[in-house]
Input
Amino acid sequence: MKAKKLLLFAVFLISQISVAAAADVISIPADQPICRLYSIIQVLGTIAGVLVAAYAGFILTSSNEISERNQSKALLTGVILGLIIIWIAPLLVKSLVGAGSLCGW
Output
């Protein structure tokens, strides 16, 4: 059963290569609503990430219990990964799609 799922996934990926190659290169100007929404999400996500990172750092430095320190390390790792995803996503999409300009990037 697992081999069938893997084969189906591989066929799907191979079919997406031809679809992506046939797609036209697009440019999305920075004044489009989707770009504004993404900018708002980036700012709010960054603010929330910094606040949660500060909280996790405070718990990490002030706690004496190993379990709380491990939880704060996991929280800090999640925050860092989330911020990386938020800020790298447009560049990754641009490089994969080969778009001209995505929201001014």
About this structure: The radius of gyration is 20 Å. Strands lie at 27-28, 101-102. The chain has a mean pLDDT of 82.
